[in-house]
Design a protein that fits this description.
- Helix content is about 35%, strand content about 25%.
- It is an alpha+beta fold.
- The strands form three sheets. A seven-stranded mixed β-sheet has the order 9-11-8-12-10-13-14, with helices on both faces. Strands 1-6-5-7-4 form a five-stranded mixed β-sheet, with helices on one face.
- Helix 2 packs parallel to helix 3 and helix 7 packs across helix 10.
- It is globular and about 65 Å long.
Length: about 350
């Protein structure tokens, strides 16, 4: 395709025809020439917005774009209503790729009852791989809004599922051939399958009913980054038991193999929560079929302590996600291969 806006016939054929999920609150949705979406809310409801790009992987981008945004909205206690997509594609992109991306988007929207309300699709030389940026729209009752900064001293700290599952799935898919030389196929397939666990909308709904005080979905920077951000937003300190943080064995072994820190690995699918009664929250989540663990408590002051048995350390400011080490290695290898090819000639 040529650089510039995706042609109208492709827009209709590859994008609009894939979008079927509708919400009655959406007054104006995706259509040729429409620059904005419109949502009607009741007087006692809050309009919640979120935006995120998908840049760390090119696989399952459509699905991840929806999940990441839905997770952000859910962490505010909001019900996801719709999304707006900006899709930037490199020159020579085939129409089949656009159709595949939109089919992934629509399938995930259908699962979560979210409407793709509109957006912008463009072929541009400014990118060398597909890039999706998503703006999410959600709604919540005024008194039910949950923030990252709602934690208070004395609250318990709880996490759902396991940390590092998103990063583990991405690495298992990107490095499958290499991993199969070291691990059994069943192990690698299990790690790849973690991408089925990335939605935190169910645990957010359960947590709101249970009386959660703060929520923060654990994404780039891993659990360490999420703990820091929650503490900073709430103006509190933390005392966290490292051994209580749940980590899947697949994550542990893959991180050991690539010398990565699983606690600083991208972790969509894991929700960080605080509650005056963490044991009740854990019990409510488990009764809803969602694994959860109490990993510490909120305290007065600013100190963010991580205890590992008798050892004690202090949480540092969020660092670059460990996943980028994998991509740096892959880029380095590509550059090396290119140099080798040049030398041959």
């Amino acid at each position: 395709m040529e650089i510039g806006k995706v042609p109208e016939n492709v827009l209709k054929r590859a994008i609009f025809r894939q979008l079927h999920t509708k919400r009655e609150e959406v007054l104006v949705g995706a259509a040729v020439g429409e620059d904005c979406a419109a949502v009607e809310l009741l007087p006692d409801e809050v309009f919640v917005l979120s935006t995120d790009p998908i840049t760390g992987t090119t696989k399952d981008m459509g699905r991840l774009a929806v999940l990441v945004t839905a997770n952000d909205l859910a962490s505010a206690g909001a019900e996801p209503v719709g999304i707006l997509l900006t899709v930037l594609l490199p020159p020579k992109t085939e129409e089949s790729l656009i159709r595949q991306l939109m089919e992934e988007v629509e399938h995930t929207c259908g699962e979560l009852h979210i409407q793709a309300m509109g957006g912008h699709t463009e072929i541009t030389a400014a990118v060398n791989q597909p890039l999706i940026s998503v703006t999410g729209v959600g709604k919540v009752k005024k008194g039910a809004l949950v923030t990252t900064g709602g934690a208070r001293p004395g609250d318990d700290v709880v996490v759902s599922k396991w940390v590092g599952i998103e990063g583990t799935s991405i690495i298992a898919r990107e490095k499958e051939a290499e991993l199969l030389n070291r691990f059994p196929k069943t192990f690698v397939e299990a790690a790849k399958g973690f991408d089925k666990l990335l939605c935190v909308v169910p645990e957010a709904a359960t947590a709101v009913k249970s009386g959660v005080s703060a929520m923060h979905d654990v994404t780039e920077g891993g659990i360490y980054g999420a703990l820091w951000e929650l503490a900073e937003a709430s103006g509190i300190g933390l005392e966290i038991d490292l051994r209580a943080i749940p980590v899947r064995q697949e994550t542990v072994e893959i991180c050991e193999y690539y010398r990565l820190n699983p606690y600083q690995l991208i972790s969509s699918g894991c929700m960080l929560m605080t509650s005056p009664d963490g044991r009740k929250l854990v019990r409510d989540l488990r009764e809803a079929g969602i694994p959860a663990a109490l990993i510490g408590r909120c305290v007065e002051g600013k100190a963010k302590k991580i205890r590992n048995g008798e050892e004690e350390a202090y949480l540092e400011r969020p660092k670059t996600d460990e996943l980028y080490k994998i991509y740096d290695e892959m880029r380095g290898k590509s550059a090396c291969d290119e140099r080798e090819n040049i030398d041959l000639y």
